[in-house]
Design a protein that fits this description.
Distance between the termini: 73 Å
Number of strands: 19
Radius of gyration: 37 Å
Structural class: alpha+beta
Number of helices: 24
Largest sheet: 4 strands, antiparallel
Length: 712
């Protein structure tokens, strides 16, 4: 009993302890879930009508499109500019695929497997497939047989790991083609359906006919706006503000910022120049006389000495051309200094007469008995066998096999991939049609030279050249200067500007900088800086020194505009110019109206105003320009369409000035109304622009959160 009483006495405490434990468990789970939620939210690259796309999914598409770019361009490397274009193509694909799939699913529209197959490799090959370079033969013609060979290749994955990787890339490329073909067909079907529901009616056809039927020849006078000086027209600030508020929708823009920044150029120091000069003093004499020039050059020069050091008139550096083709073996020039570069050159051989490039084709045989098979094929080729047909039948490299083994034109330095250095050098020494085999890790390769460019006079040069670059010590010193300036800036733009003034640093500005920018002013490769700037508050200094192209940069956010509109301050000059033009139009129109009271004839009116009479012919309601000067004056053209022959208009304010027009002749220049023909013409025009309008409408009505700039 005593024990029970003791437990009862601790009851309230136990309730509190258990309650706190439960609360901690619930809160802990909530925080864990919350962390996961925010982590997942930060991983979303885009959200389109509620559908989220993670960074992993988006980047997977980027990889697929990059692989396709390499396949179609033949490029082994993808530079940053190409990568930006690829990412933009992925974005457009994602938008199209998401929206088109959404709207077609709602109405039950789809593509059957048979329909898709027909467009991939059937009787109605899609244009995307027909534009693919893999499916062209060696005559440059699209080949359905090449598609069949490609599909057979995909159905039989190789056991070899290296070949398997290539097979996987080919499969990835085919998936890319299939997805794009499917999307294009589905989009075309949907746009066609919408297009069928938008028809041209009889009233529209009649209106178009009426607009074009009557053409007018006119005389007109023009009093230009510049006849009144801008300084004579004053626009009150209130009028500018009212105009801005009334037309604010004209001045929409994305969020932007104004940056102030100081750049520290990565330039060589005097010690760096002296270091390179000392190098030439040390090795210059040896370079002139050594029998092993390759060792001296390849250790110390920016331009290596190797089998590619054979130059023609077209390929030799311009500053060495006269020396190279006028000297003799072992002649030396330099050292001399140009463009921050020290250079010496030595003629190693003259009288070389060889082509710039050779055209190759190959057959790649894999397997244990590859050499035996290769020898047999070489005998067949030497006996007159069709190399292209044999390549299609036996080569393991499907991409070139589909082209009859065609590798293409190669220069001396284009080894890599299936071509080794020895193969290239042998090819330049070989005669046209010579066939050679090479044992490779995975099999045996047969190479044939079947065309050479014309031989040219060449010279072999050894070039000892070193561009003076900032050393590590110099870069560190410049970075420390930038870092000290960042410390002196104390996180605030006022201190930033004061520190710059104290150090005599130039503060540059980059205004209206968009989140999509990659450069600030002339500073390139500033993407990381810009991303950081958009996460920094107005008046604050960015918290680190940024490494941009050949520069270190310290920056501060001077202003932030996230209102969705340009500021009144930014647009005031533009609005002021517009209002000045409007005011000038009113003044000039009033002056002309007064003159017209005493001068009802256009000729006397022109004389009174001191202007000449101009002519415009064949003007109708659909005209775009007026007169021989080609002025775009829709208001004036509209006024002409309301006038009768010989009638003089009232003053009309146009884009260039104020006009008065008179019709001198009117004719019906269009044949009698042909309703069917007119409607057909309008339908053709509609079918041309309607898909674009449909797509723009779909995008405007979509709910899109684009977070790409947080990742790229």
């Amino acid at each position: 009993m005593a024990t029970l009483e003791k437990i009862r006495s601790w009851g309230p405490v136990l309730v509190i302890i258990v309650g706190l434990a439960l609360f901690a468990f619930i809160v802990g789970d909530f925080l864990t879930q919350g962390q996961r939620f925010f982590r997942d939210a930060k991983n979303v690259v885009a959200q389109i009508n509620g559908e989220k796309f993670s960074y992993e999914a988006y980047n997977s598409l980027v990889g697929q499109f990059t692989n396709a770019y390499r396949m179609e361009s033949g490029a082994s490397e993808v530079n940053e500019e190409a990568q930006k274009q690829i990412r933009n193509r992925v974005w457009q694909y994602l938008l199209q695929n998401t929206k088109i799939t959404e709207v077609t699913q709602k109405i039950g529209m789809d593509i059957s497997p048979d329909e898709l197959s027909d467009h991939l490799f059937g009787n109605n090959i899609h244009r995307i497939i027909m534009q693919c370079p893999l499916f062209y033969d060696d005559q440059g013609q699209f080949s359905t047989a090449a598609i069949k060979n490609f599909m057979d290749y995909l159905q039989n994955p190789p056991a070899n790991q290296e070949q398997r990787e290539r097979h996987d890339n080919m499969q990835l490329y085919w998936n890319y083609l299939v997805n794009n073909v499917r999307l294009d067909i589905l989009q075309e079907k949907y746009f066609s359906l919408i297009g069928k529901s938008v028809v041209v009616n009889n009233l529209e056809a009649q209106q178009l006919y009426n607009n074009n039927r009557t053409t007018s020849d006119v005389n007109y006078i023009l009093q230009p706006y510049f006849s009144i000086a801008d300084s004579l027209v004053k626009i009150p600030e209130a009028d500018i503000k009212n105009f801005f508020e009334k037309h604010k929708h004209w001045y929409k823009q994305d969020d932007n910022i104004n940056l102030s920044y100081v750049s520290f150029d990565l330039k060589p120091s005097q010690d760096d120049y002296k270091s390179v000069e000392n190098l030439f003093n040390k090795y210059g004499d040896e370079f002139k006389t050594t029998n092993d020039v390759a060792e001296v050059v390849n250790i110390n020069s920016d331009i290596p000495y190797n089998d590619h050091s054979v130059y023609s008139q077209a390929t030799v550096p311009t500053y060495l051309k006269d020396f190279a083709f006028s000297g003799k073996k072992d002649d030396v020039i330099g050292p001399f200094f140009h463009d921050d570069t020290y250079t010496m050159a030595r003629i190693m051989e003259t009288g070389i007469f060889s082509p710039d490039s050779v055209r190759l084709r190959h057959i790649y045989i894999v397997g244990d008995d590859s050499q035996k098979k290769a020898d047999s094929l070489i005998n067949v080729i030497i006996a007159g066998g069709d190399f292209a047909a044999l390549a299609k039948q036996f080569s393991a490299v499907q991409q070139t096999a589909n082209r009859g083994g065609e590798i293409g034109w190669v220069t001396r330095d284009m080894y890599g991939g299936v071509l080794t250095k020895d193969m290239i050098l042998d090819a330049f020494k070989s005669n046209t049609s010579d066939v050679t085999s090479y044992e490779m890790d995975q099999g045996t390769q047969i190479i044939q030279v079947y065309e050479k460019s014309p031989s040219r006079n060449k010279v072999c040069l050894a070039i000892l050249e070193r561009k003076v670059m900032p050393s590590t010590e110099t870069e560190t010193e410049i970075f420390n200067q930038a870092r000290q300036f960042l410390v002196d800036s104390k996180d605030k733009i006022d201190d930033f500007e004061k520190a710059a003034k104290d150090k005599n640093y130039i503060v540059r500005t980059a205004n209206n900088l968009m989140k999509t920018a990659y450069e600030i002013g002339t500073t390139q490769d500033a993407r990381q800086l810009i991303r950081k700037a958009f996460d920094t508050k107005k008046g604050k200094v960015l918290s680190e020194v940024f490494s941009c192209k050949n520069q270190f940069v310290v920056a501060a956010v001077a202003d932030v505009n996230n209102s969705g509109y340009q500021t009144l301050k930014d647009v005031t000059p533009s609005i002021n110019s517009q209002l000045i033009r409007i005011k000038k139009g009113e003044i000039i129109a009033s002056q002309i109206a007064d003159k017209m009271k005493q001068n009802s004839d256009l000729h006397t009116l022109a004389a009174a105003l001191g202007v000449e009479i101009k002519q415009a012919t064949s003007v109708n309601f659909s005209s775009v320009t007026l007169g021989v000067g080609g002025e775009q004056e829709p208001a004036v053209i509209g006024k002409i369409s309301t006038l009768k022959q010989n009638q003089i208009s009232t003053p009309v304010a146009g884009n260039t000035g104020v006009y008065v027009v008179q019709i001198t002749n009117q004719t019906d220049s269009v044949p009698d109304f042909n309703r069917t023909q007119t409607i057909q013409g309008m339908e053709m025009q509609k079918n041309y622009y309607l898909p674009y309008m449909i797509w723009q409408s779909m995008i405007r009505n979509a709910k899109i959160n684009d977070n790409r700039l947080n990742f790229y």
